[in-house]
């Protein structure tokens, strides 16, 4: 038995290495292709030859990458703050508090997750842009994503795993529900918070349709919309269109990759039951 396990280890390492290479190769291809003076849509673009930053300069000169990054950052941070505040409050209420209609609220939450956002685009546009007058406004870009039902569900499931005796002991000591949430539940929910942050970040950072509809001013457009406008009009104006396309993809992907690398070591399990006796 031990000999067979030892013999299988090299095989597993080889398979894992091949999987890692297959996973990382598209990122490598994207970065190298964005730095080449001539990029062809085949595997030859993966060869690091004739490297230059001209593709990034062309994008920055056409759309002002710094301004677009700022717009994307403001929109994304606003969505993240709203997601954490409302998601934690709603998730805690659905998991810990007792009130009439709790099951119906949770059922509605699950129903909302089944409705594609694209079906709500037209009524949201009428409500946000025409009725509220929030076109070309950061608040107009943030509002439709302020409540994230997936984050609410994630926090609810995490708080349900916590021993009820923790909350009961805090109530006996006279702590309010907000104090219990802030001092007891939230510190133990760090893995859930980081997971919700990462999952939520990817959505608004890469969102194209909604910002495209509500922002007509180029100075207000986030990076995804600005890049799409640039790439649709770059034929004949850019020496290496394929390289510029890959450069735009790199600019969009780098923040998400950096965020994952910063947070990945915190995605650990929490020994919730260690806070209780017995």
Report on this structure.
There is one protein chain. Helix content is 69%, strand content 0%. The chain contains 13 helices and no strands. It starts with a helix and ends in a 15-residue tail after the last helix.
Question: What is the secondary structure topology, with strand pairs?
Answer:
Blueprint (H helix, E strand, L loop, with lengths): L1 H34 L18 H10 L1 H32 L5 H12 L7 H11 L6 H5 L6 H12 L3 H9 L4 H12 L1 H17 L2 H6 L8 H10 L8 H23 L15
Question: What characteristics describe this protein?
Answer:
mainly alpha, single chain, 13 helices, 69% helix, 278 residues, 0% strand
Find the structural class using helix and strand composition: mainly alpha
Could you give the order of the helices and strands? HHHHHHHHHHHHH
First-to-last CA distance = 38 Å
Extract low-pLDDT stretches.
272-278
CA gyration radius, whole angstroms:
24 Å
Q: Could you give the count of β-strands?
A: 0
Percent range for β-strand residues: under 5%
Helical proportion? 55-70%
Major pleated sheet: none
Mean pLDDT across residues: 83
Counted by DSSP, the helix tally is: 13
What's a concise summary of this model?
This protein is an all-alpha fold and 278 residues long.
């Amino acid at each position: 038995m031990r000999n067979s396990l030892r013999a299988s280890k090299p095989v597993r390492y080889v398979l894992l290495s091949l999987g890692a290479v297959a996973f990382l190769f598209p990122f490598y291809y994207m970065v190298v292709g964005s730095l080449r003076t001539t990029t062809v849509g085949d595997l030859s673009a993966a060869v690091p030859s004739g490297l230059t930053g001209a593709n990034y300069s062309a994008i920055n000169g056409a759309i002002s990458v710094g301004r677009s990054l700022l717009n994307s950052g403001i929109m994304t941070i606003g969505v993240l703050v709203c997601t954490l505040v409302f998601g934690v409050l709603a998730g805690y209420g659905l998991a810990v508090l007792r009130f009439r209609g709790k099951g119906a609220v949770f059922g509605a939450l699950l129903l909302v997750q089944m409705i594609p956002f694209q079906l709500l685009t037209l009524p949201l546009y009428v409500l946000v842009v025409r009725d509220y007058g929030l076109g070309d406004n950061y608040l107009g870009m943030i509002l439709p994503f302020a409540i994230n039902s997936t984050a609410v569900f994630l926090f609810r499931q995490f708080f349900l795993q916590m021993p009820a005796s923790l909350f009961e002991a805090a109530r006996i000591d006279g702590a309010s529900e907000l104090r219990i949430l802030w001092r007891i539940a939230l510190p133990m929910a760090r893995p859930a918070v980081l997971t919700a942050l990462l999952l939520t970040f990817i959505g608004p950072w890469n969102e194209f349709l909604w910002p495209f509809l509500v922002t007509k001013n180029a100075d207000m457009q986030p990076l995804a919309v600005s890049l799409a406008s640039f790439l649709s009009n770059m034929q004949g104006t850019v020496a290496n269109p394929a390289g510029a396309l890959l450069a735009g993809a790199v600019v969009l992907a780098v923040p998400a990759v950096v965020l994952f690398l910063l947070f990945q070591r915190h995605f650990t399990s929490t020994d919730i039951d260690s806070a209780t006796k017995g």
